[in-house]
């Protein structure tokens, strides 16, 4: 398998870019790097670029991050565990002295000989073709997103064209979906519009690179921060979520979801009516149900089961659905007891997403009053992980969860009978 430096060199050569041109393009896109740094990456003297730099390089060179880091199977989505672990070992060697690297190479060679791999020739990497033009749906979705971001930044078309350089991009044609801008141009526009959050940038760029077809959350009526969150959720292999006020949206009945949105207000999902917001919740549930292999680990406060936001019959159906969900093999549902809880974090509801790709770190999402905050800082994400871990070892077990749900179901049933 060719290493990162070899693939970067191949991509630069085949695409006809110099290191200076790439450095200039990324710097203009809001990711400042130098020509010398690109040269060091190209020659293998630097081996630990950040994920943001990797994505920007991939965007500029019109390849995937997976291809760039040497994961042959990432292109088709069939991620091989052995290859991912091998890639992670290579990345973890960054910063070692030459002596340590020599020892490591010797160990790897011994292991290859032991497994009779030393004689296998390494195939030369083949650079994928440049991205095909976006289809009409992708162009329109991308154009609407860029229009909304420009409007949010309160910039006129003329101001954007001056900032980019006259003739650099036909902004009206892009926003109307008539032409597709190059991914590196989108990088520059995002920087100009003040879009700094990596998940939001990556959400928009995934459209620009034509990496996926448009989805229900690409609608212009869905705020870009929420679309980015939904896109992350659909790619996650493990979802950990903690809720203190309501049943998690992924586990709500339609009637309960309508009541929850009525109480909190549809604006929390950027919608003008409860029914519009409800459609997003239902679409989110449908997408999660269709995702194969996704594990949902949900922790709720026991107060959620007592809070009455709707009639008792709807509450009862919600409890029945929770009991059904708790029996599913890919759902782990737990309750923080009201009486003498062992641990309660000083925070509101939050969610953690974990992904299959070895190079993609976990993302946390703090659910706020008016919008959600997507958190990528490793130290902050780890803080949320620690809180969830403490919750997980102090809440009900799966068996105890059934008992708690049945207890509240029986309590509510008796209340209705009276």
From TrEMBL:
Residues 33-68 form the HTH cro/C1-type domain. Signal peptide: none annotated. InterPro entries: Cro/C1-type_HTH, DUF5753, Lambda_DNA-bd_dom_sf. Pfam families: DUF5753, HTH_3, HTH_31. CDD domains: HTH_XRE. SUPFAM superfamilies: lambda repressor-like DNA-binding domains. This is Scr1 family TA system antitoxin-like transcriptional regulator.
């Amino acid at each position: 398998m060719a290493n990162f430096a070899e693939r970067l060199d191949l991509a630069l050569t085949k695409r006809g870019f110099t290191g200076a041109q790439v450095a200039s393009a990324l710097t203009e896109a809001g990711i400042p790097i130098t020509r010398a740094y690109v040269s060091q990456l190209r020659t293998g003297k630097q081996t630990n670029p950040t994920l943001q730099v990797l994505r920007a390089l991939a965007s500029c060179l019109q390849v995937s991050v997976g291809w760039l880091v040497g994961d042959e199977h990432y292109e088709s989505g069939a991620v091989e565990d052995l290859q991912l672990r091998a890639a992670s070992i290579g990345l973890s060697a960054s910063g070692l002295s030459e002596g340590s690297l020599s020892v490591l190479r010797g160990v790897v060679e011994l292991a290859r000989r032991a497994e009779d791999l030393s004689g296998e020739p390494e195939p030369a990497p083949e650079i994928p073709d440049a991205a095909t033009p976006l289809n009409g749906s992708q162009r329109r979705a991308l154009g609407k997103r860029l229009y909304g971001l420009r409007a949010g930044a309160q910039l006129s078309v003329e101001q954007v064209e001056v900032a980019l350089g006259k003739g650099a991009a036909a902004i009206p044609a892009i926003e109307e979906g008539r032409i597709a801008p190059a991914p590196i141009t989108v990088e520059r526009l995002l920087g100009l519009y003040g879009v700094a959050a990596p998940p939001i940038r990556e959400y928009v760029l995934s459209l620009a690179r034509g990496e996926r077809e448009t989805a229900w959350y690409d609608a212009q009526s869905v705020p870009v921060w929420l679309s980015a969150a939904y896109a992350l959720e659909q790619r996650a292999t493990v979802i950990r979520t903690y809720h203190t006020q309501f049943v998690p949206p992924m586990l709500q009945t339609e009637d309960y979801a309508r009541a929850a949105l009525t109480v909190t207000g549809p604006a929390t999902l950027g919608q003008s009516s409860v029914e519009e917001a409800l459609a997003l919740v239902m679409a989110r549930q449908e997408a999660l149900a269709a995702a194969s292999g996704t594990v949902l680990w949900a922790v709720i406060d026991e107060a959620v089961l007592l809070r009455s936001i709707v009639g008792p019959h709807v509450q009862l159906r919600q409890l029945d659905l929770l009991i059904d969900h708790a029996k599913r093999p890919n759902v782990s549902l737990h309750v923080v007891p009201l009486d003498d809880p062992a641990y309660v974090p000083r925070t509101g509801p939050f969610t953690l997403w974990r992904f299959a790709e070895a190079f993609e770190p976990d993302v946390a999402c703090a659910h706020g009053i008016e919008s959600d905050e997507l958190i990528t800082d490793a130290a902050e994400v780890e803080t949320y992980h620690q809180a969830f871990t403490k919750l997980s070892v102090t809440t009900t077990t799966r068996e105890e969860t059934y008992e708690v749900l049945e207890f509240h179901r029986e309590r509510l049933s008796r209340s209705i009978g009276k």
